[in-house]
Amino acid sequence: MPGEGFSEGKTGPPRLRIADIAARTGLSTATVSRAMNGKPRISAATRARVLAVLDEIGYVPSGLAASLRTGQTGQLALIIDTPDDPTRLAAMQGAFHAARQAKYGMAVYMIGDEGDRTRTYSQTLARGWVDGALLLWPGRADAPFVRRLRAGGLPMVLIEPEEAVPGLPAVYADAYDDGWRSTRYLLDLGHRRIAACANPAGWGIEGQYLEGYRAALAAAGIAADPALGAAAGWSYEAGYGVATTWLRVPDPPTGLLFRVDMAALGAVAAARDLGRVVPDDLSVIGGDDTQMTQWIKPALTTLRERRSGLTRVACELLLDLVAGRPPPAEPLLVQTAVVVRQSTAPRA
Length: 348
Fold this sequence. Notes:
By secondary structure, the chain is an alpha/beta fold. It folds into 3 domains: about 20-70, lambda repressor-like DNA-binding domains (434 Repressor (Amino-terminal Domain)), CATH 1.10.260; about 75-175 and about 310-330, 3-Layer(aba) Sandwich (Rossmann fold), CATH 3.40.50.2300; about 175-305, Rossmann fold, CATH 3.40.50. It contains 12 helices and 12 strands. The protein has a 6-stranded parallel beta sheet with strand order 2-1-3-4-5-11, sandwiched between helices. Strands 7-6-8-9 form a 4-stranded parallel beta sheet, sandwiched between helices. Strands 10-12 form a two-stranded antiparallel ribbon. The N and C termini lie far apart (about 80 Å).
């Protein structure tokens, strides 16, 4: 039999009605509705009466009790274009881990076009269904969407945006340090002809990767060969193409650096097709530490947890903003370390 004051469908738990709560609290349905939806002009005592009834009946619709007590939903948003490659999946894992550690849920919203941006904003973010948002690699086309979120007062953190937005917190992988650190590792192995492939220089601070690479060479007394530094991109095909070009020159490099693991894997394939053995003839370093780099043969030397570590820091920063802490005055730069596997070896 249905419990007093509740209706029961054919399946599922009893359905809570505002009128039932109003009857139990002695409040009007309008007052109960405002309390349940976190509206202003509701006293603490009134909100407590509604919470007491919810606790009494043990019924919590849509995470309502936690929201009423704290003024928060316990949910964060991760906004991304399409999670269709290992780099994006690695980045998502870091954000999920940090949210889980803080006992927050995280919903992923894919915004491939303007229609997706409009629906995501109007149907979810503008309705207060999340406490804050992480925007992963927002580009120039996302600027109106970012402005809309900002105007609505939603706490947010930009992760490696194409362009910085004054006044909005941003987190970047330290591209300069990544380029320096990777080059320094190959120099320590005895390599002197080293090539580096970065992402397009116009995106965020990506151009600093090649600056770090050239600075490390200069510190070792080696003049950088302009032909061995390229901003060819992050895809497998880009890595394959640029590595093929480099390995066909009269004095080919013995070490290759890539900002992204997928491009590094393309380089490994190019080396194999040209009869080069990694790491005996050629050392290759990636830049993401995506999970698959541990499974391939040879396993790829790369930068430890660069994507997942980046988004973990960004999520921790977002949680600080949600808690009311002030944002940092400058963008955060996240550094990492080389994780050595099987694709690098001392120069013979």
